[in-house]
Amino acid sequence: MSDDNEIIDVSTFTPGFRDEIAAEPGGEHIRRCYSCGTCTAGCPVGGVTDKYNPRRIIHMALLGMRQQVLSSEFVWLCSVCYTCYERCPQDVRIPELMNAVRNIAVREGHVPQTFHLQLEKLREHGRLYEIEDYENERRAEYGLPPIHEEAAEVHRILDAAGVEGEE
Fold first, then answer.
1. Cα angle vertex 21, ends 50, 46, to 5°?
2. DSSP helix/strand/coil, 154
3. Which of 27, 36, 91, 125 could form a disulfide with 21 if both were Cys (CB 3.0 to 4.6 A apart)?
């Protein structure tokens, strides 16, 4: 997100950005937002970092600040807890809206490096972390079956979904 004192060049705005978001599954209600701030006031992520401010993100999207929204990390910070959804008086459905924005960002190659790293781990181990012997030993103590890496099955799912790995 830009510094509050930064001068913004409105000639770089994309007026149809709100329509582009509204055309995405989950983005249909973006125009309902009247910037009351209820979403931001109740957001648990917003309480941890000021980088995530749902009201600001939606406002920027409505203004047409397409490049700033899609290339910033803040749209990836939503935890999809639905607190904002439950409190929004306009039924904006912010978690779904953030997913719509993320989908546009992914199509245009704006994905944070951490997600590429997670995908690497998922392809390598079939999950986001490697199963250590210790974990299976603890499971055995409780009579639980061991966890096996299911990388091949996850590969099939990712391939079927069209998810490509880092080249």
1. 15
2. helix
3. 27
List Cα–Cα distances, 102 to 26, 74, 151, in angstroms: 11, 10, 25
Q: For each of the chain's 167 residues, which pLDDT tens digit applies? A: 555 677 888 888 999 999 999 999 999 999 999 999 999 998 999 888 888 899 999 999 999 999 999 999 889 999 999 999 999 999 999 999 999 999 999 999 998 888 888 888 888 888 888 888 888 899 999 999 988 877 888 888 888 888 876 54
Please state which architecture CATH assigns to domain 10-107.
Orthogonal Bundle (1.10)
Do 72 and 95 contact (CB within 8 A), yes or no? no
- Domain limits of the chain? 10-107, 113-160
Residue 9 tokens read as: 């060049």
String of DSSP letters for 20-31: HHHTSTT-TTGG
- Side chain identity at 155, as an amino acid letter? H
Residues 89 and 33: their CA atoms lie apart, in Å, by: 9
Distance in angstroms (rounded) separating the CA atoms of residues 39 and 13: 24
State which amino acid sits at residue 78.
C
